[in-house]
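Sanity check

After download, print the first record. It should look like this:
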Amino acid sequence: MSGRACLPIQADAAGLVLNQWFALRGVPSSSVRITV
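Expected structure tokens:
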């Protein structure tokens, strides 16, 4: 059960990493939001 509970957290973390990666790459995207 703990594994399933961590799925949303991992998904959010992956999203943040992707957003930061796109920002570092200088990709213009209004849909990309970075939350610290």
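If your output differs, re-run the checksum step. Summary of this record's structure: The radius of gyration is 12 Å.
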